[in-house]
Amino acid sequence: MQELHNKIKSILENGSASLFIAYQKSREGKITPTFITKPEQSQKAYFGDDCKQNLAVYIHKQEVKNFGKVGIFANIYTLKSLLQIYAENQIRDDYLKVVTINPNGAIVEFANFMEIENYVNENKPAPNPEDMERVEKLSNLSREERWDYWLNELSTCIKCYACRAACPMCYCTKCTVDCNQPQWISTPSHSLGNIEWHIMRAMHLAGRCVECNECARVCPMDIPLNLLTVKLNDTANIEFGQQAGLKGELDYALSTFKVDDKENFIR
Amino acid sequence: MSNFEPKIIAFVCNWCTYAGADLAGTSRIKYAPNVRIVRFPCTGRIDFMLLLKALQTGADGIIVSGCHPADCHYTAGNYHARRRWIIFKSLLDFVGFDTGRITFSWVSAAEGAKWAQIVNETVDKIRDLGPYTDYSNLNKLGVGTITEVLNARTA
Ligand code: SF4
Ligand code: SF4
Fold it and tell me: Tell me, what's the pLDDT at A181?
């Protein structure tokens, strides 16, 4: 931990960032993000296996951008998000100072996104076996059973949009759910609008989701909504050999195509 | 059920399938009158939300059709559309929509007969399947209390 503190301190001192985003742990053991602006606050930073939140979500915020250069402590999913966001041209290479702790416990500071790309590809997290199993199980049910399952789950959604707020890949300044001319998605928390919302959300994240599971973690209704994007990522990978968060160059399933893309349902 | 007439909404592109449907008309090819055609500049322009809206407002079946690969008026719109439908179909299948009710096809401006055949086959198929109410019925569902919903889920 001392090493991490020193690293943050030196980054803030030598001016390579004027804000550093990291995790902190309260006395009760609660993990929250912390925004460090003074070198002497560096010892607030904490890192452990319990640091799950995807901090990349903050770099889209104007309040954060106002700091100019920003440092961020990134776990592997945050790294994937940052790389994908970079590929989507949402951040400049020189805007971020990214720091991580590698599997051997050593601090790694990245000079640019090329290094992040290499690191992420060397330390690629395996797909979550639990999620894969649930997707597989659902896929093996009958169509009616799947419909009942999702209707049941999604009908509980209270449309708080915490999942959207927590997802680093949901950065549009105007979201389709907020659009009321036309009203694509009805606003009440009602089965119909809920299904529309989740289909829309999954479609817009297909092949872009980095599978950090932040959306499912923050959902107050415990809806396993990440399974939708996990499923679509799987489709994008099988059909187009495309995976999110592994390349610094844009390689997004739905903005590109191959002339010989295969399907078996168009007549 | 015997007098059930399927409502089919067809989302077609201006340059190929719409012209193909036009050709079917001028060639006096007879086909089922159950289809309402919505014309788009390009298949690439057909948002997946429109398909949901059609189902929500009572369509029993949907046709999505445009130029054959390599024939797009805008060069690549149909290639983009093809990818979108692959992903969208995968999602709808996963959520449990009856995707057998959606016909995807390529119909060129010269294929009036193919258009008539696609429409007829889709109408026959939907007639067999019956009205599609899974989705549009959600309109009528009441909003359960949270406790009701949660109890139903744990049960
Ligand atoms: S959709 Fe969920 S799992 Fe995917 S990147 Fe967003 S928060 Fe993470
Ligand atoms: S966090 Fe959960 S309840 Fe809130 S909008 Fe997302 S899915 Fe619905």
Answer: 87
B78 by Cβ neighbours in 10 Å (0-12 / 13-18 / 19+) ranks as buried
- B117, closest residue in chain A (CA to CA): A267
How far is ligand 2, taken at its centre, from the CA of residue A161, in Å?
A: 5
DSSP-derived secondary structure for chain B: -TT----EEEEEETTTHHHHHHHHHHTT----TTEEEEEES-GGG--HHHHHHHHHTT-SEEEEEEPPTT--TTSSHHHHHHHHHHHHHHHHHHHT--GGGEEEEE--TT-HHHHHHHHHHHHHHHHHH----TTGGGGG-----HHHHHHHHH-
Q: What is d(CA A144, CA A151) in angstroms, rounded to the nearest whole number? A: 10
The enclosing H or E element of A65 equals helix A62-65
Q: Is B138's CB within 8 Å of A195's CB? A: yes
Give the separation between CA B146 and CA B4, rounded to whole angstroms.
37
C-alpha to C-alpha distance for B55 and B102, rounded to whole angstroms: 10
pLDDT tens by residue, A209-261: 999 999 999 999 999 999 999 999 999 999 999 999 999 999 898 988 988 88
A40-94 per-position pLDDT tens digit: 999 999 999 999 999 999 999 999 999 999 999 999 999 999 999 999 999 988 8
Q: What is the CA radius of gyration of chain B?
A: 18
Kindly determine whether residue B87 and residue A253, on different chains, have CB atoms separated by under 8 Å. yes
Domain boundaries, chain A: 2-122, 129-255
CA of A261 to the centre of ligand 2 (A): 34
The model carries a pTM of: 0.91
| Top-tier CATH class for B8-154 | alpha beta
The C-alpha atoms of residue A233 and residue A208 are separated, in whole angstroms, by: 8
